[in-house]
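Lecture notes, unit on protein representations.

Consider one protein chain, 400 amino acids long.
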Amino acid sequence: MAENYFKTYPDSKGFFKEYGGAFLPPELDAEMKKISDAYFKISKSHDFITELRSIRKHYQGRPTPVYYCSRLSQKYGGRIYLKREDLNHTGAHKLNHCMGEALLAKYLGKKKLIAETGAGQHGVALATAAAYFGLECEIHMGEVDIKKAHPNVVRMKILGATVVPVTHGLKTLKEAVDSAFEAYLKDPINTIYCIGSVVGPHPFPMMVRDFQRIVGIEAREQFLEMTGELPDNVVACVGGGSNAMGIFSAFLDDQECAIYGVEPGGKSLHIGDHAATMTLGTPGIIHGFKCYVLQDEKGEPLPVYSIASGLDYPGVGPEHSMLKDLKRIKYEHVSDAECLDAFYELSRLEGIIPALESAHAVAYALKLAQKNPQKSVLVNLSGRGDKDIDFVVDNFEMPQ
């Protein structure tokens, strides 16, 4: 990797080599520049850093632990460890960047936070951040996802957020992003669009990655302390890719660590049955940035699907796209069935119910453990499964 990697990528225009950038209408260019300038100025200030560190420790409950899965390891082989982001306040990694984005909004004098959400975890985290800072909050969510993740919809409303159902197209994450962008365009002066992953126009992929780096920083130090060595494998699920970039960022220079991003293979690899962007996508532009995209011959996004609402996005973070081309990270996919098996295995062997998104990473970790029983695997358990339990038991047969 490049020396001073985090100062090299992205470049001054927001590119990770050929990916990223900001392909925006002229009226948004000036606002994005303000956000970018403010981020570089404010996020490096003593007051901002001190306040964010205090929030992480006293409000979020960081650091989250690394946990050794003894029974899972005994059954599947290898040594399987989890970075327990499910124990972060609100139950997922999302609050790491939401508190940072909301704190930036506070320093910018914004009055309202706007965002999209798929599985609802980003929506809950942003609603939480808005309540903490006394800001308004508006969350756009596809009708399909509202039904799948109903508990999170209730949580957002209890926290004071307005949930806007998105009723066009496939009524999932891509359409929720479209809707949230349109709402932001109506009043970019008083609002800020808090993107929920390492996607979107510059500076958001960089900002979200930087706020999520705390996951990798903690995990690397904790794993070394626990074992005296680095993990042989690091695994995380990838939709947009925020939890993955969070943990991967700490291991990019450690060539002895193999890194795997796990995408949703869904029901099959036919069009509309999956969201395996890195496996089957090609470079294109979506939502104001360049990345790998599942797209047709005209460059229009293809329909996508995943059992996990937080992963059904036809694009991916531009930094992930670069790291795929550099062959530093291997991107694999697992099916819905494999995801569900891992969901129940972790629940019943370790007493930890994972989010369906995270269960994709667990499923691939089990494959690695069986294939290489002498190796260690560190999984970013990006969220807990409270939001998914009704959907799972109502739609799939529970194993005995």
